[in-house]
Amino acid sequence: MRESSDEARTPQSQGWTLEHTARYVSFMSQAHRKPKDPEQVRATLLDCARTLVVDAGVAGLSVNAVAAAAGVTKGAFFHHFGSKSALVDAVFAGLFDELDREIDEAIAADGERYGCFTRAYIGSVFRADERHQSPPFAGLWISAIADPQIRTAWAAWLRRRLGQHVETDSDNALQLARFAADGVWLADILGFETDDRAGLRDRLMEQTRKGA
């Protein structure tokens, strides 16, 4: 009986030795293997962790959950992050970087130096609300309330930024405006509805102008 075309193409039908066959299998295995780039794996772990933080806060973050969401083993997780704490630090460092960029862009576009940081800060608070508390702000603020590690990092970030803007944003009136903005996102977290958000934002912005 004539062999089928598939059978005719097998290594054994070509008279290969076991050594030849082993080399063939090894080559095909290497050809079809798709090694994961370490930086890509790390970025995926961070993205998955960030999503979990936004959804459930730091309390909802676990090594198993992040590894499963990223499609990697726990061993791969620990290759990139030595602990859950190290992962949390990396996630929030990224969130602070985003917040810095957004605020810096707003300051650069502001035509008035006095109160420029406070206006950028207030703008970020209300833009976060318009995005329905989407990242980076939802996870950052919720976790800052519940987690001592994040509270410390948040306080350090705010002190650093205020230290950069002592000449423009140190007045008590500006501090009160920032505190009022903080109350907006706190009200959202607690489930209180705020009427006329645009009007409230505009009123706070007015308070940041010199001579207001």
Mean pLDDT: 78
Runs with pLDDT <50, length 5+?
1-16, 19-35, 131-135
Helix content class: over 70%
Strand-residue proportion: under 5%
Organism: Kaistia soli DSM 19436
DNA-binding region: 62-81
Protein name: Transcriptional regulator, TetR family
Domain HTH tetR-type: 39-99
Describe this structure as you would to a colleague.
By secondary structure, this protein is mainly alpha-helical. The chain has 12 helices and no strands. It is elongated, with a radius of gyration of 27 Å. GO terms for molecular function: DNA-binding transcription factor activity; transcription cis-regulatory region binding. This is Transcriptional regulator, TetR family. Residues 62-81 bind DNA. Keywords: DNA-binding.
Would you summarize the structure shown here?
This protein is mostly helical and 212 residues long.
Features:
73% helix; mainly alpha; 12 helices; elongated
Question: What topology emerges from the helices and strands here?
Answer:
Layout: H1 5-8, H2 18-32, H3 38-56, H4 63-70, H5 74-80, H6 84-109, H7 116-130, H8 137-146, H9 148-164, H10 166-169, H11 172-190, H12 197-207
Keywords: DNA-binding
Protein name: Transcriptional regulator, TetR family
Pfam families: TetR_C_28, TetR_N
